[in-house]
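input
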Amino acid sequence: MKWLSHALYDGQKKWFVVRLVRMTESLPPALLEPLLCAALFEQDANRNRHFVEAAVRAVGNASVFERLLGYMRQGDDTEKAGAMRALYWCAPPDAAAGREVARGLLEAFLRETDLDVRRSAISNLAGIAWSTMDPGLQSQMAEVLKLAASHPDVYIRHRADFIRSEAKAVLPAMDRPR
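output
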């Protein structure tokens, strides 16, 4: 167990562990946290999927979702950005949890200054079904889009433009800075 736990922090060995976990019926509790950390610290948003799906299969979607939400709210900048990327692969268990994710992403974009956190937040905000969110969250999203439209980072501006075009019928009217 100790070797497997440590291997999840190694760039090459972690892939062996995730394959092994995917072949087992259950996950020893001692491996859950290292498995989630492997997902958080995997920079490739497509590859972190392997760790998230292995954890979900082992302990269930709701447990993994809650742990990732905790990292998004209270982790350091690297953990926050990683949790946002990992949450993409872990569906909210219900509508209330979906609103919590939206609220957390909005607050992270507005509050945090780390570029990776802001990029991860705006990326995930693009996947939210804004028509199902309450007016308060929609209004907060309009505020985020206004800030993002004039952000110095081109990726953030691009994602804001995409969200604005996709959700223009749902979100409150927004003036685009020139």
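quick obs: The first helix runs from residue 2 to 7.
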